[in-house]
Amino acid sequence: MKRFLPILTFLAVLFSQTSCSCGGHTPEEQADSDTLPSIVMQIQKCSRLYTTEYHIHKIVTHDDVVRLRGKLMQQDFNIPLPLGERKIAIPMDATVKAYIDFSTFSEKNIERNGDHITIILPDPEVILTSSKINQEEIREYVGLVRPRFSDKELTSYEQQGRQAILDAIPQMGIETTAQENAARVLVPMIAGMGYQEENITIAFRKNLDIRRLINTNLEKSKER
């Protein structure tokens, strides 16, 4: 039977350095900054904004036992064989990041109503940037009548562990954290263009399905 223990720890942090190059403005620039094209230009400078990083420690476990099954005197029996059990626990550390790509940001992402402005963020993208097995901390028990776990089996369990992490991402609330951290970057920038902070709203589009935003292509960057 395969069991995947719950995520033990995770940490969401806002990068102290991002790819934004949204500096201050001269008085001449400020006078012309209250236009949609200027806002779009400043936000596009952020390019790819990494907003969230989760460090995940997971233990993947597997155990199985050889059993003798049959029928005797019209009675079914199912007996575990002595020394026929195998168990393994594989510790895995992974890093999951979320970022917002502003390369396609346009005036369609901005709504203004009087003094109030709403920035609708592009959908965040979530990637599993690395996963690493601590080989020294693998714990294995193999009964005398059983073979040791093969490299093929270990690779399969490792892949299942990474998939379990990806499957758990929608329950982490990573999109909410990404939005909050993006607001910490964008609100001061927009406030510098003349808007009051209380009149600035940062939001994602409605009905955001985080499961569709998980990029598994970068899984090949895993470390062994």
Quaternary: single chain
Helical proportion, percent range: 10-25%
The chain-level structural class is alpha+beta
| Poorly predicted ranges | 1-19, 21-33, 218-224
* Average pLDDT for all residues: 75
Treating each run of at least 4 consecutive H or I residues as one helix, how many helices? 4
**Radius of gyration, whole Å:** 26 Å
SSE string, helix = H, strand = E? EHHEEEEEEHHEE
Strand content: 35-45%
The tally of strands reads 9
Notable traits:
224 residues; alpha+beta; 6-stranded mixed beta sheet; 3-stranded mixed beta sheet; 4 helices; disordered N terminus; disordered C terminus
Please give a structural write-up.
- This protein is an alpha+beta fold and 224 residues long.
- Helix content is 22%, strand content 38%.
- It contains 4 helices and 9 strands; from the N terminus they run E-H-H-E-E-E-E-E-E-H-H-E-E.
- Strands 1, 2, 3, 6, 7 and 9 form a 6-stranded mixed sheet that branches. A 3-stranded mixed sheet has the order 4-5-8, covered by helices on one side.
- Strand 2 and strand 3 form a beta hairpin.
- It is elongated.
- The two termini are 24 Å apart.
Short characterization:
With 224 residues, the chain is an alpha+beta fold.
Please describe the topology of this protein.
Blueprint: E1 2-4, H1 27-31, H2 36-44, E2 48-72, E3 75-101, E4 110-113, E5 116-121, E6 125-133, E7 139-142, H3 151-168, H4 174-191, E8 200-204, E9 214-215
